[in-house]
Amino acid sequence: MPVLVIDIGLKSCHTYNLEAVKVESYAREDPGTNYLKIVTDFSQQDLGQLKTRIAAALEMN
Q1: Buried b (16+ CB within 10 A) or exposed e, 22-34
Q2: Mean pLDDT across the stretch 26-51?
Q3: Nearest-angstrom CA–CA distance, 19 and 51
Q4: Which helix (H) or strand (E) holds 40?
Q5: Above 90 in pLDDT, residue 52?
Q6: What is the pLDDT of residue 19?
Q7: What is the number of other CB atoms lying within 10 angstroms of the CB of residue 18?
Q8: Which of 26, 55, 29 is nearest to 38 (CA)?
Q9: 14: confidence class by pLDDT, cuts 50, 70, 90
Q10: Which residues, other chains included, contact 51 with Cβ-Cβ below 8 Å and sequence gap of 6+?
Q11: Is residue 13 within 8 Å of 41, Cβ to Cβ?
Q12: Selection from 32, 28, 31, 52 nearest residue 40 by Cα
């Protein structure tokens, strides 16, 4: 069964971005795992793009 990992990070949060590298590396080791990284400031302007990217990732899974 395929797995989808959605890694959501806050823009300008460099501490989180350092940890995200490890999460991405671990997720990409498994061939059955799809990985989507989203970096956002959680503003309303990002909402449309986020919906589109997450929907596309779910369809690919």
Answers
A1: eeeeebeeeeeeb
A2: 89
A3: 24
A4: strand 33-40
A5: yes
A6: 82
A7: 9
A8: 55
A9: confident
A10: none
A11: no
A12: 52
The structure's pTM equals: 0.76
Residue at token pair 């061939």: 31
How far from the centroid of its chain's Cα atoms is residue 7's Cα? 3
Q: Both tokens of residue 21?
A: 């590298």
- Of the two residues 57 and 2, the one the predictor is more confident about is 57
How much is the pLDDT for 40? 87
The structure tokens listed for 11 are 């823009």
- Angstrom distance (rounded) from CA 26 to CA 44: 31
In the numeric block, the tokens 């959680």 are attached to: 42
Q: Tokens 């956002």 — which residue? A: 40
Instruction: Please give the average per-residue pLDDT across 47-51, as a whole number.
Output: 91
